[in-house]
Amino acid sequence: MVDYVTRILATAAKRTSAGYVVTLISCILAAFIWNRPAGYLQATVSPWTTNSTIASLYILTNAARVFTYVPQLMAVWRSTDGARDISLFTWGSWVVANATAVAYGAVLIHDLFFTLIAVLNLVCCAAVTVVGMQRRRAQR
């Protein structure tokens, strides 16, 4: 399964180096998660030990969210109008929110998966924000 996902994503990511980096990080995370038994995932998510379904859904939806950044990043990268279609304020607020999630996962709950997912979301949001800022500066 991991090989299939990696092949599809690598094909899509050949267009930009940023897409390749996002794909590579996403595949590493997916391989890391998929190589662990299900019980291991449940044991690492300490805040939701009473409801492992919520913990599993959190991990799956937020890990999948990393892949949804690729189209936005590619659109901003290819933008010729200064990336006016995105709100840098909104993307910047998501950077801050993900930074606090990284701190929460690393410092308070000591959860590796939570922290890794938050780091990936932070990197992806920051990439969209930085590329958008660069496009706007270049437009001026």
UniProtKB/TrEMBL annotation:
UniProt-listed Gene3D superfamilies: 1.20.1280.290
Keywords attached to this entry: Membrane, Transmembrane, Transmembrane helix
Coiled-coil ranges (or none): none
Transmembrane residue ranges: 17-34, 54-76, 88-107, 113-133
Protein name: PQ-loop repeat-containing protein
Native organism: Cupriavidus laharis
